[in-house]
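Quick one:
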Amino acid sequence: MVVYSFYIFDRHAECVYKRRWLPRPSSFTGKSSRPTSEASAPANGSPAVLGQSAQTTDDDAKLIFGTVFSLRNMARKLGGDEDSFVSYRTSQYKLHYYETPTNIKFVMLTDIKSPSMRVALQQIYINLYVEYVVKNPLSPVEHPGGVGVNNELFEESLEQFVTRVLS
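Output:
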């Protein structure tokens, strides 16, 4: 199984964490299928994430949240309050969604052959996010103005979880 990217959104619809392991499928970007260079950097001098500028990754987070928000609301309207949105699949990727009781939203993009990641997202929330972010007295409770999760232990543990457990 291949994990493309991972996002965390707070209860105010702000993307507080994003991590990309592999480039997105070409149909998700809407661009050609040519691979992008990892060494390329945008004009403003900031480093690119796998060949993409910070502006593009911010736009991606907004698109992901908008998609999840719309599909979740549609599932609730059609199926009632008991129904919940868990995942959807396209021909290029599969999006997995988990929402905590405190309205923190975890989103993971994987390849289409992957099984449900709901349990994995719950484990990331309970074992990593709560342990390293929520219980950290130096970590902000709210993330105003785009200040996101900046915790080395969380990032290292997430990297290990994705590479060892999910691979």
